[in-house]
Design a protein that fits this description.
The complex is a heterotrimer. Chain A is mainly beta. Helices cover 5% and strands 36% of the residues of chain A. In chain B, a hairpin with a 2-residue loop joins strand 8 and strand 9. Chain B has a single domain, classed as Oxidoreductase, molybdopterin-binding domain (Sulfite Oxidase, Chain A, domain 2, Alpha-Beta Complex), CATH 3.90.420. Classes of the chains: A mainly beta, B mainly beta, C alpha/beta. The interface between B and C is medium-sized, with 14 and 21 residues. Chain C: Keywords: 2Fe-2S, Iron, Iron-sulfur, Metal-binding.
């Protein structure tokens, strides 16, 4: 019964980092090259942090750890992200 | 600006000297997972310890159990603030698995089916402090709780007790595993509240 | 290189912020869900389909936070949520059973720029597909459509267990008409005289009760993870382009 949600649920955490909402932004998976909106990533929330994985290949795209007074963000699995002006 | 919402208490928290700071006692067993749950049949399961010589020490499921499992009762502490006390487990002590492993390296990376990793000092796995667990609460471990077998290192936060364990690799330095790379503490002592970087 | 200014491509959205909400009213929505009407003086309004992170704090400082879709888009200062109680949940049972008028909550939002519908942005028809409480953001879209003069045809296919489990039943019935088609699929128990037997949504029903792919509808699908993934895959089989399908999975306790 491990279930995942999707990238829509990242909007709150990422709004602390980016000046615009990035869940609608397209990003490229550094593993398989798939390009899709962040909102379409698979997001595991029942974990010590939020873990976003590529819907195509399961590679970890991004993680968000809420450390209380800090937020620790990794975007290491993304090769690029498209931010609209 | 936070304020308390009337009537909300969340999970019960009772002060208890067996609970590390910031922990809450739970009766159920929450399932945490950072990815899809691997389903590994014991017929295909294999456990490997890899040292710097390149010689792999391998055990099949039956070979693991033939080393002799023991019953232990212990407390577990998850970094997401819950603890379970007096939990019965059954597993094979890592002392038995390391009996014939010669290594100069002092650190270990645990690897799981599904790709999860976590790092530990070797000394935290020896002297009766850690097991390859195959049963909990009298039942074989469900896949959602890490079955068929998980690492069990109860004196550290439970993310160190890697689910779906498939092997240990000796390392000369304490390189970070999955959560340790993404913000969690390199060691993770619950009594010192070593949660984050 | 010419230094032409870049034209803004979108209307700006309000920046997400923390807001204090007071409960105005809580009432049963279905046997397992409650509708919460919240007074949020600083709330700027939101695009239909967006969500909030709702945070509760216990007297000892313990906090729990969950994401919920907003069932309203206007007016500013007011937020409506409809929350289904999840068994063994930590937050939803409190919200559904314990919350009373005057209680205060914290909301972070409005959140989400992907699963939203904005009037006047496109003339394409819109197909909404909801499962269970996944209808909440879709209801917000249908209500925003009904309140404005956007000419795009709207249709909602709503999969629900029994007639008693329908969220916003009266409001949806009132919206239904020329510009908004409402199709219900009952999975466990249908009303007396209903033409179809109760049963799970199938690909055939989906094909028969939704705007066909040739009309290039924008499709919004919200429900449990299993529901969303089944429907999204059927939609692609039926010829809808993946880029036309917007999905949102709910869960969380």
């Amino acid at each position: 019964m491990t279930h995942h949600l999707d990238g829509n649920v990242l909007a709150g955490a990422l709004s602390e980092v980016f000046t615009t909402d990035v869940t609608a932004a397209r990003a490229r998976c550094g593993g398989c090259g798939r390009m899709s909106p962040i909102a379409e990533a698979m997001v595991y929330t029942d974990a010590p942090g939020l873990v976003a994985r590529c819907a195509g290949c399961d590679q970890v795209l991004a993680t968000v750890v809420d450390a209380g007074d800090r937020l620790i963000l990794s975007l290491a699995g993304l090769s690029a992200i498209e931010l609209r002006r | 600006m936070s304020f308390a919402t009337r009537g909300f208490s969340g999970r019960r928290r009772a002060p208890d000297d067996r609970l590390p700071p910031g922990q809450t006692l739970v009766q159920d067993w929450p399932v945490l997972s950072a990815g899809p749950t691997p389903h590994v049949d014991t017929a295909d399961w294999e456990f490997t310890i890899r040292d710097e010589t390149g010689d792999d020490h391998r055990w099949t499921w039956d070979e693991l159990l033939a080393l002799g499992a023991e019953d232990v009762t212990l407390d577990i502490h998850c970094v997401t603030h819950w603890s379970k006390l007096d939990m019965p487990w059954r597993g094979v002590s890592l002392d038995k698995l390391f009996e014939n492993v010669e290594s100069e390296h002092e650190f270990v990376m645990a690897h799981s089916y599904g790709g999860y990793t976590t790092n530990l000092p070797l000394e935290d796995l020896l002297d009766g402090k850690a097991w390859i667990a195959t049963e909990a609460e009298g039942e074989p471990l469900d896949p959602e709780h890490g079955g068929p077998a998980r690492l069990l290192v109860p004196h550290l936060y439970f993310w160190k007790s890697a689910k779906w364990i498939r092997g240990l690799t000796m390392m000369p330095s304490n390189d970070p595993g999955f959560w340790e790379q993404y913000g969690y503490h390199i060691y993770g002592d619950p009594w010192k509240e070593e949660r984050y970087w | 290189m010419s230094a032409q200014p870049v034209a803004p491509l979108r209307r700006s959205r309000p920046r997400p912020a923390w807001h204090v909400a007071s409960v105005v009213e809580t009432r049963p929505e279905t046997p397992t869900a409650a509708r919460l009407i919240l007074d949020v003086p600083t709330w700027p309004g939101s695009d239909a389909g967006s969500h909030v992170d709702l945070r509760l704090t216990a007297p000892d400082g313990y906090q729990a936070s969950r994401s919920y879709s907003i069932a309203s888009s206007t007016p500013a200062g007011r937020v409506v949520l409809a929350i289904d109680e999840l068994p063994d949940g930590e937050v939803s049972p409190f919200l559904v059973r314990e919350l009373r008028p005057g209680d205060k909550l914290e909301l972070h939002g409005p959140l989400g720029a992907f699963f939203v519908w904005r009037p006047g942005e496109s003339r394409r028809p819109v197909q909404l597909i909801g499962g269970g409480s996944g209808v909440v953001p879709l209801y917000a879209m249908a209500a925003a459509h009904g309140a404005g003069d956007d000419p795009s045809p709207f249709r909602l296919l709503y999969s629900v267990r029994t007639p008693a489990d329908v969220f916003f039943a009266d409001e949806l019935a009132a919206l239904a008409g020329q510009a908004f088609g409402l199709d219900l699929v009952y999975t466990r128990e249908a009303p007396d005289g209903w033409p179809d037997a109760a049963g799970r949504l199938t690909r055939e029903t989906l094909a028969a009760r939704t705007i066909p792919a040739e009309q290039r509808p924008s499709v919004y699908v919200c429900g449990s993870t299993g529901f969303v993934e089944a429907v999204a895959s059927w939609l692609q089989d039926l010829g809808h382009s993946a880029t036309d399908i917007h999905t949102e999975r709910y869960g969380g306790l």
